[in-house]
């Protein structure tokens, strides 16, 4: 079905075409000058000292965990409400993801429940800055320091997002970003990055991601490593995108505020927003909605593509080997049953947002 208003629509202009064409004409399409420039721009944005590229956000998380020595027999605390990529990265190392419920107000991990989920096997906490809102990093880092745990931040939806004036991803031991097509900016569909302020971790990452060597073209490999590189073609797209990040963010914030304006006073929904310690980089316009299944059918019938919220990780069929009780995850279950995500991408027009909101109001007026 072709939707009048799709969920995802990356903002591409002649800037991306120019960067990609320039890369093709130089014939340097593997990691090279464009990759170096893109990393530099990301470090400038985040304030991190070091950064390496990764094929995607999932592998960025996996690489970080592996560098920290996490593997079989270890446990990593993960929010129950997140894209399964977060916990799958833990699973890929051979370690066990341990799920913790989220707070209902911003859907980020409930730090008050982390220590209850910890055991002697716990080695790390993975806070996920969900939907462009920051986790309560002070409390999380305090718990980590007290218990000598690593903190690997999943900042895959956190481009340009700050917690108390610190960019997310730079507060823990390592932070991971995704440049998938629906993120605030993309490297052409897939891509990722790890940032850190630790020079020793940075060096380990350099070896691990490049076949166990620091320099490509060398056939002496001091360490075991793999190919976790990106291409200059991807970074060419990323360069054009990140250079207009401020423009993109401004429009996404404006789109989010338009939804709020047009839906003001509608008692059938509740808008989800970040808490006071977090800035905001809207990933979607997120709400809790009454009669959600019926509303979704109504919207899609009217040509509006919707997106439900994450299925709780503790209920995922692929994780049936782990035994949990629903009573410990009331908020992640509620978010799945009531949560709806609507688009905020750059090219979304004011008239389209009004159409979406009018359609929602029409649904509730007739039910």
UniProtKB/TrEMBL annotation:
SUPFAM superfamilies in UniProt: PLP-dependent transferases
Keyword field: Pyridoxal phosphate
Keyword Transport among UniProt keywords: no
Record-annotated active site: 183
Example GO molecular function: pyridoxal phosphate binding
Xref: InterPro entries: DegT/StrS_aminotransferase, PyrdxlP-dep_Trfase, PyrdxlP-dep_Trfase_major, PyrdxlP-dep_Trfase_small
Gene Ontology BP annotations: polysaccharide biosynthetic process
Keyword Ligase applies: no
Highest taxon listed in the record's lineage: Bacteria
Record Pfam families: DegT_DnrJ_EryC1
Modification sites for N6-(pyridoxal phosphate)lysine: 183
Family from the record: Belongs to the DegT/DnrJ/EryC1 family.
Name of the molecule in the record: Aminotransferase DegT
Species annotation: Candidatus Roizmanbacteria bacterium RIFCSPHIGHO2_12_FULL_33_9
UniProt lineage: Bacteria, Candidatus Roizmaniibacteriota
């Amino acid at each position: 079905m072709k939707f009048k208003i799709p969920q995802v629509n990356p903002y591409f202009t002649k800037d991306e075409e120019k960067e990609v064409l320039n890369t093709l004409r130089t014939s340097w399409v593997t990691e090279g000058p464009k990759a170096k420039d893109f990393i530099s721009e990301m470090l400038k944005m985040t304030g991190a000292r070091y950064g390496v590229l990764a094929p995607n956000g999932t592998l960025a998380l996996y690489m970080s965990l592996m560098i920290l020595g996490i593997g079989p027999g270890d446990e990593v605390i993960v929010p129950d409400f997140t894209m399964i990529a977060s916990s799958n990265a833990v699973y890929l190392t051979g370690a066990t993801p341990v799920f913790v419920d989220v707070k209902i107000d911003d859907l980020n991990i409930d730090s008050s429940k982390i220590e209850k989920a910890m055991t002697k096997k716990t080695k790390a906490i993975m806070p996920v800055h969900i939907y462009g809102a920051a986790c309560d990093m002070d409390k999380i880092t305090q718990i980590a320091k007290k218990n000598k745990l690593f903190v690997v931040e999943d900042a895959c939806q956190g481009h340009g997002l700050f917690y108390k004036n610190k960019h997310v991803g730079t507060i823990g031991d390592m932070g991971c970003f995704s440049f998938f097509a629906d993120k605030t900016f993309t490297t052409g569909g897939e891509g990722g990055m790890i940032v850190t302020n630790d020079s020793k971790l940075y060096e380990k990452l350099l070896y691990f991601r490049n076949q166990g060597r620091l320099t490509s073209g060398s056939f002496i490999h001091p360490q075991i490593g793999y190919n976790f590189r990106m291409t200059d073609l991807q970074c060419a797209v990323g360069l054009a995108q990140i250079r207009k990040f401020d423009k993109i963010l401004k429009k996404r914030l404006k789109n989010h505020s338009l939804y709020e304006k047009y839906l003001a006073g509608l008692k059938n929904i509740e808008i989800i927003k970040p808490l006071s310690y977090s800035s905001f980089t809207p990933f979607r316009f997120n709400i809790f909605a009454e009669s959600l299944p019926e509303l979704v059918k109504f919207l899609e019938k009217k040509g509006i593509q919707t997106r439900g919220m994450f299925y709780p990780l503790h209920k995922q069929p692929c994780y049936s080997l782990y035994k949990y009780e629903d009573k410990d995850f009331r908020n992640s279950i509620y978010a799945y049953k009531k949560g709806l995500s609507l688009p905020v991408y750059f090219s979304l027009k004011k008239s389209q947002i009004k159409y979406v909101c009018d359609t929602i109001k029409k649904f509730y007026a007739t039910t």
